């Protein structure tokens, strides 16, 4: 906290929108901040000799326990009014640190947004030293967040929507085996709208990226649906041109 | 140069990839740097109270003379090894400035990449105070550039390719009236491959975003091709879902 000015690139932070899919819901990993009612995105600073991607990987590893994580830088947020100097000033006081007006934490910060796609079951949510809890929250239940974090989350979602045909989003978020309704729910959540079941299934099958397994998902009230897995080689090939076919 | 440390956000710059279309070629606006053989992307710094977008707009206005410019932030480049301290150190010497090791210009810089789409004929290329010339160069003739600017240019192109269905790229780059072969060349250049003439025409017409005019382009050796213009309302509507149709 005191040496940060010497260790980190000045005026630069990063924030991570970590998506996971569980119980047929798209979820985001959030931190409950100490001494406030706010929830926030996991984030951190960039060491002076560190790449942005290495810094994001480090933050994600610390919050999730996963080393090999799919992440993409998606936007920089640089509004001069975005920093919450009052929060940091109060926090420094609580820590007993006499903060000068030019303390490194009280300057303007721009933040680089990364989104990460993780397999829910692999994650061990772990709070950082500014937070008392680290929890998955259902996207639809997330309200306002600390500072401009809600805006960062919305921009991450918009990016997912645009990249749905160019990034292995389904592959990274779903477990190895999944049902067609699960895949459809994931698409519906990202796109923010209901899709027709038959059209969805036909279109998905037309891409040639799914393998229908012999197993079914047992235990539900309905007829047991078939399980699918991705044909990774064909998926990645299709993504090069865009799933809907290139020019 | 001396007061920059007080005026600008520390360790932060931006670089602009300015695209224009002329003579059936995609071109990029580059600066010929003073005292070196290097060409570079136009760029600048961000004032402490300025948004990133305002800073980019300011730089673009200064280099092109255009106020109302279409620009998009597309990536941050943050490799700790990307900065060319030697160049800046030499430049400061030439300007007769005694630069301490911690001079603001000699620190690590991360840079935010913006791409801009301009109508070629509206631009008045104008060098900045580090350059002796500002010129359009044909994309295919651009070799290495200063620092990591070639990498920034390549990433901008990759972004254009991915956003071809989601941003009004044709509308921003072409003049009000254009021929189908001109539109096709633009697409071919961005996609980096040849397209079939008939398929291209059929697909473009299927989007319902083009209006065929009664005029033709006269003067060529071949049969005079029809002129087209965009139906802006329909174009923007189609982009909301993606040109190839949404889900």
Protein described:
2 copies of one chain form a homodimer. Chain A is of the alpha+beta class and 247 residues long. Chain A folds into 2 domains: 4-156, Nucleoside Triphosphate Pyrophosphohydrolase, CATH 3.90.79; 176-241, Arc Repressor Mutant, subunit A. Helix content of chain A is 32%, strand content 28%. Chain A has 8 helices and 10 strands. In chain A, strands 1, 2, 3, 4, 5, 6 and 7 form a 7-stranded mixed β-sheet that branches. Chain A starts with a helix and ends in a 6-residue tail after the last helix. The mean pLDDT of chain A is 92.
How do you describe this structure in short?
Chain A is an alpha+beta fold.
The pair of chains with the biggest contact is: A-B, 34 and 34 residues
- Basic shape of chain A: elongated
Q: And the CATH topology of the largest domain in chain A?
A: Nucleoside Triphosphate Pyrophosphohydrolase
Give the number of helices of chain A: 8
Give me the count of strands of chain A: 10
Contiguous runs where pLDDT drops below 50 for at least 5 residues of chain A: none
Termini separation of chain A comes to 52 Å
CATH superfamily of the largest domain in chain A: Nucleoside Triphosphate Pyrophosphohydrolase
Structural class of chain A: alpha+beta
Backbone CA Rg of chain A: 20 Å
Biggest sheet of chain A, open or closed, and with what strands and sense?
Answer: 7 strands, mixed
CATH architectural label of the largest domain in chain A: Alpha-Beta Complex
Helix fraction bin of chain A: 25-40%
The first-level CATH class of the largest domain in chain A is given as: Alpha Beta
- Elements of chain A, N to C (H/E): HEEEEHEHEEHHEHHEEH
Please give the oligomerization state of what you see: homodimer
């Amino acid at each position: 906290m005191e040496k940060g000015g010497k260790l980190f690139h000045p005026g630069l932070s990063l924030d991570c929108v970590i998506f996971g899919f569980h119980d047929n819901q798209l979820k985001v990993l959030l931190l409950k901040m100490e001494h406030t009612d706010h929830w926030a995105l996991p984030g951190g600073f960039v060491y002076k000799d560190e790449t942005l991607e290495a810094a994001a990987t480090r933050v994600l590893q610390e919050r999730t326990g996963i080393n090999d994580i799919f992440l993409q830088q998606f936007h920089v947020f640089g509004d001069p009014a975005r920093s919450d100097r009052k929060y940091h000033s109060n926090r420094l006081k609580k820590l007993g640190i006499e903060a000068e007006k030019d303390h490194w934490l009280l300057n303007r910060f721009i933040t680089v947004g990364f989104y990460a796609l993780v397999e829910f079951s692999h994650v061990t949510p772990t709070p950082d030293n500014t937070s008392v809890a680290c929890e998955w929250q259902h996207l639809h239940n997330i309200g306002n967040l600390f500072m401009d974090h809600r805006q960062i989350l919305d921009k991450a979602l918009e990016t997912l929507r645009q990249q749905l045909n160019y990034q292995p989003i389904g592959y990274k978020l779903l477990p190895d085996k999944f049902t067609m309704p699960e895949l459809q729910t994931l698409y519906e959540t990202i796109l923010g709208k209901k899709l027709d079941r038959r059209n969805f299934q036909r279109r998905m099958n037309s891409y040639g990226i799914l393998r229908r397994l012999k197993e079914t998902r047992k235990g539900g009230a309905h007829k047991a649906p078939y399980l699918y897995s991705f044909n990774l080689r064909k998926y990645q090939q299709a993504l090069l041109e865009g799933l809907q076919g290139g020019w």
